[in-house]
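Hi, here's the filled form for the chain we discussed.

Project: internal
Contact: R.S.
Residues: 507
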Amino acid sequence: MKRHGSPLKNLRSKCDDQIGEPHLVRPSPRVSRRLAEPQPKKCVLYSTDGEKSAVICNFEKRGWHQVPSVNGEWNFYWACTQTCRYIFGIDQPYRMRSDQIINHFPNSMELSRKDLLIKNIKRYRKDLERKGDPLAQTFAHTMKLGIGGTRYMHLDIVPMTFILPTDYNLFVEEFHKNPASTWIVKPCSKSQGNGIFLINKLSKLKKYAYEARTFYPLLSRNTSVISKYIDNPLLIGGKKFDLRLFVLVTTFNPLKAYLYNEGFCRFCTEKYDHTDINNVFMHLTNVSIQKTNQEYNSIHGGKWPVQNLWLYLDSLRGGGVSQILWRRISETIRHSLDAVAPVMSNDRHCFEVYGYDIIIDKNLKPWLIEINTSPSMHATTPNDRMLKSRLIDNVLDVIVPPGGLPDDHWDKSPDPSLLTNFTVLKPVVRKKDAPAPLPAVAPHGHSLKKRRINSPKKKRTPVAPPVAEAAAEQTDDEEEEGPIKSSKLQRATAQAPPIVKTRIIHR
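And the returned structure, exactly as it came back:
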């Protein structure tokens, strides 16, 4: 039989002709699989809570289709925290399939709730101290503490914080040590700056004082945290600002976290004055608060790209300053994630995009202020819209497996080329540093010299030649004093002969 066309088409037509004729030989299963047409790629179905333009635009750009969330046919769910808790609830019969992924961990409040974050960080410090880890090194008790109020060299990432009303008595004891200090009170169950106020008098905390005297203070619904206020923030144009940075966590065991290289500064609308603690427009940087002020500019939204901040610092304080600050911020974020990793429910269906709020003081030290599990994806300015769109696009590149469909068997190790604008947050390692010198104690050379003069044993033993003694003293000074060693040697050599004569005459 003469064949026309490609061999594959002729074989397929021949097989079609033989269907229904039992006396003819049918093709083997292997040949049938080869002849079968490739299956169309399965479309990803997504669902969201609310209209988030940056999220939906990226889903539609990838060809995903939106479906309702009630029947559970979705593959990708960008949900709110309440929906996530409902899905993972004990009483909920629904169980996620292997091809489903959601954007929250079951107990993400361990990071976002302010009182739980402080408890986890304090436990993290104590655990490292018990292990003797160099990260848990502390300053001497004679050294004056900074604004943070802790004695840790490397773990002073959050200001001194107490939980009210449980730690009210401890707070009062600390407040009396410095009555002129300013503190900031934040409710644990609220967001967007609601319920935040500053105090410098104990009379403003009467309700917490009353609840602290009750038998069951932990049952109070008005739980808040009170922190030492950072009253020396870095100002630009006389205005206070903080940083909003985004961190992607794909798994907590092992911890795989990525810091997005872009972000923005949120500026206050009024110039900073630490004496006026009642004006929220000069202290709180939340956009939801600042946009209610008449001075709010809707064109730029009071936001500044973080790249502009790096250029400003490098031009003002020298090149390389921004890199040092970025490294400090990365270490601060990594410490916070390490603090909650042991208590997080590491579900294989989950990932998380956290919004970190960082304040920088005049010494370029970053302070962790707050962590948001649902950072706003609503755009207020064109630059804000483009930044968040790029963020979601890069997040999807990292969390979606190479096959394009969610898979719980994937080890969540993306190709390095897909980390377009992400920086891997590596574990913080500190070498064993020498103990910090105590400022109240005299240097080692002077204390040694004093012991030589007052030691009674040297009067009963032969005294070494004065020149050699002066040389020994000069060696100690050389290590600590540096350039002034030559003058001390000349002084010691000039005084040596009269000391020898007096000792010979005395004998």
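Let me know if anything looks off before we file it.
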